[in-house]
Amino acid sequence: MSAADGDLANRPERRRPGTNLGWSLATVLRRWHEHVEEALGELPHGSRGFHILGVVVHDDVPTQGALATRLVIDRSVLTYLLDDLETAGLIERQLDPRDRRARRIVATEHGRQVLADAERRVAHAEEHVLAGLPEQQRDLFRAAAERAADAIHVAAPATDPCLAVQDVLAPASADRSAP
Questions:
Q1: What angle do CA 85, 89, 91 make, to 5 degrees?
Q2: How many CB atoms lie within 10 A of CB 91?
Q3: Which of 75, 123, 162, 166 has its CA 20 to 30 Å from the CA of residue 36?
Q4: What is the DSSP letter of 16?
Q5: Would you place residue 122 in the very low, low, confident or very high pLDDT band (cuts 50, 70, 90)?
Q6: Which pLDDT score is estimated for 18?
Q7: What is the DSSP letter of 59?
């Protein structure tokens, strides 16, 4: 994108009346959630299970407690989520050799394969959601959203992103149930 394109995008008169960042993000999030939940339909707990499995596979989160902290999920809720992922053969709980009271969450080989497939399906769903943007703008949008999310997480690490998603999606559910 050229400097001139950036200048045009930032001029208020180039924005569509009645829209703002909140409306835009909520609309994208709503569509993302619909497509991703459909893509992850067979994964226990859908996108939430996907996020848990992704952290277990890609991040160094040593214990169940650390996983709860990293994902900002109540420990008692995380226990139920992990139970279902374990029942599906995607993760295992192992005693932490340094602290026998703690449990390490480890992905099984099957869990790694399921995650790799899920990541491909999520990437496809995201491409579909962002199809209205040229490819370069999709990459810029993703990068900007990731930087903004990282900055917000650093500033407010206790904010539960799942609750934010529920807050955004709740009005859509209420709208659909109206006569």
A1: 60
A2: 25
A3: 75
A4: P
A5: very high
A6: 72
A7: S
Nearest to 121 by CA among 50, 31, 28: 50
φ, ψ of residue 158 to 5 degrees: the values are -90, 0
What span, in angstroms and rounded, lies between the C-alpha atoms of 104 and 86?
A: 12
d(CA 106, CA 61): 9
Give which of 163, 39, 43, 40 is closest to 107, Cα–Cα.
Answer: 43
DSSP of 60-129: ---SHHHHHHHHT--HHHHHHHHHHHHHTTSEEEEEETTEEEEEEEEE-HHHHHHHHHHHHHHHHHHHHH
Q: Which of 59-73, 86-100, 103-117 has the largest mean confidence?
A: 103-117
Tokens of 120: 């491909």
Contacts of 86 (CB under 8 A, 6+ apart): 92, 93
Residue 31 has φ and ψ, to the nearest 5°, of: -65, -40
Q: Is residue 39 packed enough to be buried (19+ CB in 10 Å), middle (13-18) or exposed (0-12)?
A: buried
How far is residue 30 from each of residues 4, 35, 98, 153, 164, measured CA to CA in Å? 31, 9, 42, 21, 12
Residue carrying the six token digits 């703002």:
20
**Strand partners for 94:** 104
The owner of tokens 């992990």 is 82
